[in-house]
Amino acid sequence: MDTYVRKRRVLLLVHEDLVPPAPERIEQMSDDDVAPFKTEYHVETELRALGHDVRVLGLYDELRPLRAAIEEFRPHVAFNLLEEFREETAYDYYIVNYLELHHTPFTGCSAPGLFLARDKALSKKILAYHRIRAPKFFVVPRGRKPRRPNRLSFPLIVKCQTEEASLGISQASVVEDDAQLAERVAYVHDELKASAIVEEFVPGRELYLGIVGNQRLTPFPVWELRIEKRQPGERMVATEQVKWDLDYQRERGVEHGPAELDEETAARIQRVGKQIYRRLGLSGYARIDFRLHDDGRLFFLEANPNPEISADEEFATAADAAGLPYPDLLEKILRLGINR
Description:
Blueprint: E1 9-15, H1 23-26, H2 31-34, H3 38-49, E2 53-59, H4 64-73, E3 77-80, H5 92-101, H6 111-118, H7 120-129, E4 137-140, E5 156-160, E6 174-175, H8 178-191, E7 196-200, E8 204-213, E9 217-219, E10 223-227, H9 240-244, H10 246-252, E11 254-258, H11 263-279, E12 284-293, E13 298-305, H12 314-321, H13 326-338
Parallel strand pairs: 1-2, 1-3
Antiparallel strand pairs: 4-7, 5-6, 5-7, 8-9, 8-10, 8-12, 10-11, 12-13
Helix pairs in contact: 5-6
């Protein structure tokens, strides 16, 4: 990291339920207890260690506290860790628009990039125009029955069209016939209150590419999700349990780390990842998710602007492998926000 770090007033925006408690309380808590606000705690702690003046602001459904903080604290930059507003993940880009209207620099992705990446169908349509391969798919709007196109054959995977973080995804999301398809679409409609996107299931390896930058992009080494103890017949799927259930992760040997790839394949993934980042208008930092088919074909799955950046998750560990340790990563994200 640079020997000189300019001290900034940083307004750390988090969900009101994820405001980290005092450090002395955290020291007495288990990993499971800390997990919900781990990212918020890591970011706050590291920014303070860097010497920045940090104010944590928890938001839920009111913008007045944000306006008051901007007027009183006069932040140099807002570090945006909000993933929803009024319990709607689709409202995250409204917060970014609000910051722009108040001429407050912010970290992470701008509103257009958040909007395009949020919609899995729209992002795939844009990338198809630019000849970037993605699984074939169709959308089932909420309240409609699925009518599978002839071009799509089983197995298929059913997801929420707009949610991220593997919300609602399980082994049951992979369907083998029309009856299972109808059942799973109904689950997405009824339980997640959203439209469903139905994609061809691509067998192969789950790969992640972290990228940081606005105009000049820095891709990190390709990271891979591994599940060491899969049950017989169990598909390689990044389910909600795989992502967030610590007990399940320990039991099944879930881990992420450097992908063992030949140089040509790794370079191809980084090249395509940067193309996707630009085509979807992403900025700040993002993670691009791929599936590498058993036959070597590369499929774009989804883009994740403002991904999970706790110190021990895949984005930060891949950055560290690229020579950007955690303090440097957060400082770079701050500067990209300020200099946007």
